[in-house]
Amino acid sequence: MEQEAERGIAWQRKAIAQRHVSADFRFAQIAVGQERYRAVPGTWHADETGRIAPLDQAVRQPFGIVQQNSGSMSHDRRLEGPPPGGNSPLREAGGGPIPRSIVTQAPNQPPREALEANAQGMAAIRAGDGPAAVEAFTRATTADPGALPLWRNLAHAHRLSGNDAGERAALDRALALDRLDFGSQLRLAQLLQRRGEEQAALVAWNNVRQLAERQPGLAPQVEQELAAGLAYCDELRARMAASADAVLESGKGNWGETEQRRITAFVDRALGRRTTYQNECAGLYYPFLPADEYFDRKHFPWLDELEAHTPVIRAELESLLADPGDAVRPYVRMEEGSPPSEWSRLDHSLDWGACFLWEYGQANLPVHQRCPQTAALLDRLPLLRIPGRGPSAFFSILKPNSHIPPHTGVTNMRAIIHLALDIPEKCWFRVGGETREWVEGKAFAFDDTIDHEAMNGSDKRRAILIIDAWNPHISEPERQAIIDYIVASDAALA
């Protein structure tokens, strides 16, 4: 035991030197046999490494490079799209990410006065004598103010004594040493909840939740305490939601489609009911455009004409599918040698098939001949027309029990139009934080550079028409400039 304890102490000193933020946890765990700083049971938790992972490690793809995780898909890399989740990093009051502070004490030997006082405090805790524990742990923290476990022990003693102010002061000192200390954050959240400081408790419990997500193997007691705290937060948010929804209901009559979606998203995000998403372009990116998941229908007045032709379009598709020949091909076609990914299941599979009428600005004449009225309609519509780039228009066929995984498209210069043709039950489509069901004969437009996915959970096929249009926030002069740039740059490399 003696050797094990000494090894633990040596590990702790090395860990602190290497800025492992939870080294003091492991020190308290291992060094009990030599009466070094014992921690009050249940006041802390550490993972097997004694480290806490960084809070935010988002990975972004570079602009201008078509780089799907799966390797190359089709030439377009445009993929169709259950709702995801998302977490914001733990933040200070000023709004910036919390810096990772470390435990400041790294002496060769803890002060004897602190060791002795901590041992006396532990004895008082076991005897249920809160005031004596407070007195002992106060002496311990005075002798060694950089030892985080001592402050956590002092907070526990104040809690046992019913001194909320003393507990808060001790927890504040602990968090000043290590802002990411899970045990101190947990006890702070519980204290604020107990005192009825609901707004502050909601923030504190959110911090605890974020830290817990990065700490595998929480003790059962800690899991129970965390679950109780999150249930408390759910109750608070339900009250907030009921109050906000009641107030906002009266104003809905004055909202347009865009206002309703944005206000609803704002409230839902504020209440933790949804996540919002930003554009992720793998190719050409046009700056300063709104990151709008679904576009307002008012931008596309020609959707009425498109929808009116649904029976004709559906009839031509049915005729084509009765004898498709080679008109329908797998949408996902990964290049040979691509590493396995979530797309491997769909690679060269007709589980997700496509029949193109237009592809990168080139008409597929054999399909036009078999779907003449659909082709004529597309000729009349104001689609995205860029030499060598657009439009693209195709029938998307998703077989039963098939899922198109979350992904983003190549450019935000376009809007993607879906016209629902053949939609069985259990089909849905998600863009960002909003999930919809297709309605036969109805169309909608969305930005495919925002994370999206699709599902056919039925035992029947799902069929839609997908076409490219300009992003409605790009003006006519901008559209012409884009066309000029692409034509010129392509010519320079011809």
Notable traits:
single chain, 494 residues, alpha+beta, Jelly Rolls, seven-stranded antiparallel β-sheet, 15 helices, 12% strand
Q: Could you describe the 3D structure shown?
A:
The chain is of the alpha+beta class and 494 residues long. The protein folds into two domains: 2-55 and 97-218, Tetratricopeptide repeat domain (Serine Threonine Protein Phosphatase 5, Tetratricopeptide repeat); 297-492, B-lactam Antibiotic, Isopenicillin N Synthase, Chain (Jelly Rolls), CATH 2.60.120. It is 42% helix and 12% strand. The chain has 15 helices and eleven strands. It has helices at residues 2-17, 23-30, 112-127, 130-143, 148-161, 164-177, 182-194, 198-213, 220-249, 257-270, 303-308, 310-322, 365-370, 372-380, 476-492; strands at residues 329-330, 352-359, 362-363, 393-398, 402-407, 414-422, 427-431, 434-436, 443-446, 452-456, 462-470. The strands form two sheets. Strands 1, 2, 3, 4, 6, 9 and 11 form a seven-stranded antiparallel beta sheet that branches. A four-stranded antiparallel beta sheet has the order 5-10-7-8, with no helix packed on it. A hairpin with a 2-residue loop joins strand 7 and strand 8. Helix 3 (112-127) runs parallel beside helix 5 (148-161), helix 7 runs antiparallel to helix 8 (198-213) and helix 8 crosses helix 9 (220-249).
